[in-house]
Amino acid sequence: MKRRTFLKLAAASALAKTPSQRPNIVFLYADDVGYGDLSCYGAQRAHTPNIDRLAQHGLRFSDAHCTAATCTPSRYSLLTGEYAFRKKGARVLPGDAPALIQPGRETLPSMLKRSSYRTAAIGKWHLGLGDGNLDWNSDIKPGPLEIGFDECFIIPATGDRVPCVYVENHRVANLDPKDPLKVDYQGPLDDSPTGKTHPELLKMKPSHGHDMTIVNGISRIGYMSGGRAALWNDETMADTLANRAVSFIERNANQPFFLYFATHDIHVPRSPNARFNDSTVMGPRGNSIAELDWTLGKVIESLQKQNLLDNTLIIMSSDNGGVVDDGYQDQAVEKLGSHRPNGPLRGGKYSIFEGGTRIPFIVHWPTRVKPGVSSALISQVDLLHSLAELTSTKIAPGGAPDSQNVLPALLGESQKGRQFLIEQASGLALRDGNWKFIAPNHDAAFDKNTNTELGNDPQPQLYDLASDIGETRNIAAQHPEKVTEMLATLKTIAETR
After folding, report:
1. Which of 410, 443, 475 represents a domain boundary (last residue)?
2. Quick check: pTM over 0.85?
C-alpha cells in the first residue's frame, strides 16, 4: 500500500460525516507475535510498515492482553467472552480434538450475526472440530458454521500439527475421495517415513518433538495418511489465506460484515514464501514477520479499494506472547541478535509473566478513533461485550460471563479500561491496575525446550508494573496486606461464574 494513498484516505476521513453505528469489523489475529516483534512497538531488526500505518493512524495500546499465554485458550476466550480456565479441556489441542465451543453457545460471530452481519472465519482455527469421532472425508461439524460464522476457510489446528489441509465450510478443500484422509495422534497409520525415522528427508529439522508425519519436507506433530491432493503448501499459505480474505471483503462490500482473519504467521514451522527470504537478517522468524505484515497489508488494501476503510473497525492483535525456538531448527535463536520478541517484558509464550499475555493491540477506525496511544488495561475477552454495545445488540442470556464493556477505551474516548484482569498460563495471575500478583505454583519454573521463564514459584509474587514493567523485583514480602487482598480477589473472580 502506498503511504501517500493511505495518508490521503486518512485525511479524507476527517471530513467524513458521522460514522455508521454498524461499521464493518475486521479482526486481524496474528500468531505468536510478541509485544516487541513489531516496529511500531519498538522493533528495529524487523520492519512492519503496513501494521505501523495502522498504529500511526489509529490507537495503539500499551497494556492490552489476550487471556492466556497459549493459543487455544486465548481464542476460546476471545470468541466466547469467557475465561478459558473455566472451560474443561480448553488447552492446546491436538489436531483431531472435538469442537471446544458447542453449538448454541453465545459467541462473537453469533452475536454479530443477529445484528445482520455477514460473518467469516479465515485462517488458523485450533478450537477443535467435530464430535470426537471425526471422519475427515465427510461433513466436518460442528465447527465454525455451527457457532455463528456464515462461512469459513480454516487451518484445522496449527501448521505444525496434522492434518495439513484446509477445511472450507464443512469439507476438506480439494480432497480426492479416491485418496481418503486419515488422522491419528496415537501412532503411525502406514509405513510412510517420519521425521524420526528418516531425518535425511527433512528441509527443516525439529529441535524438540515435531518428528512425525512429513509434509513438504517438514515433520509435524501427529500422523496422517492419504489426502495428498488436499495438502497445503507452507510457502503459499499466506497468499492463500490473504486471497480468501480479500474475496470475502469483495463479495460483501455492500453489507456489514465481520471478518475473523487469523494468520498462521509467525507460528512454527516458519516457512515463508521465498520472496521474503531477504526481508530481515533474522532468518525465517524475522522473514515471517515481514510476510505477516504483507498479508495484513493485502487485507487493508482490499478495504481501501472497496472504499470501506473509513467505516471499518480494524483491530489487530496476537494470540499470546512471542517465542523463539518452538520446535524447529530455523535459526531463530542464532540470528535473533538484539531483537527482543517481547520487548521490555519478562517471559513470553507459555509464561505467567507479562510477556505471556501482554500483546500488540491496535484499533483503527478513521471516522471514529483518533490516532494516539492508550495505556488502558483491556483484554480480548472484552470484545464480545464491547462490540455488542457498539452495534446495539443484546448478548444472549448467560453469554459472555467474563466480558466487560470497555468500548470507551477501545475507541480512545477514555484511558480507563478494566480494574481487574486474570492472566493464565500453567497457573493464574491477577492484575489490579498496575499491581501484578502471581499465585503460588509448584510447577516447573523454566521450560528448557523453549528457553522460557514460566514464572512459576511456590512463593507468592507481587510486582508494581508502574515502576518495574520487567517484573524484576518481587515485593510480596514488603506488602503482605496487598498479597492477601489480591489473593482473595483472584479466588473470588476465579470461583464466580
Report:
1. 410
2. yes
